[in-house]
Design goal:
GO terms for molecular function: protein dimerization activity; RNA polymerase II transcription regulatory region sequence-specific DNA binding. This protein has 129 residues and is α+β, with helices and mostly antiparallel strands. The chain contains two helices and six strands; from the N terminus they run H-E-E-H-E-E-E-E. The strands form two sheets. Strands 3, 4, 5 and 6 form a four-stranded antiparallel sheet that branches. It has a two-stranded antiparallel ribbon with strand order 1-2. A hairpin with a 5-residue loop joins strand 3 and strand 4. The radius of gyration is 20 Å and the shape is extended. The two termini are 27 Å apart.
Amino acid sequence: MGRGKIVIRRIDNSTSRQVTFSKRRSGLFKKAKELAILCDAEVGLVVFSSTGRLYEYTSTSMKNVIERYTKAKEESQQIINPNSDIKDPSQINIHLDIADDNRINAILTVITTTDKKYTTPACEFTGKP
């Protein structure tokens, strides 16, 4: 017999919410550790509780993971279009809608440093999201 489905929404009871946070946090950290060991992946995980407490896990060092993430993000922006006016990733806005028939409609909006605004026509992707 399998487990029942739960509705994903905020837990109103603070004690239950804290217990759930603790259990799910430990499960998430366990999965991160398994991913790092089984797949030889460099994993960095940062979680803040509702009270602001920091929990973190890294397979190497957090500094190395953050530096690698920053470098990879900068490189991926340059790969998209090295001559682009877009220097700040916050200038890109992607809006996804899931239609009733499970089609995904995507609209990409880009604002360049010259204040020009480009919007792609809606793209349709078939298949389940």
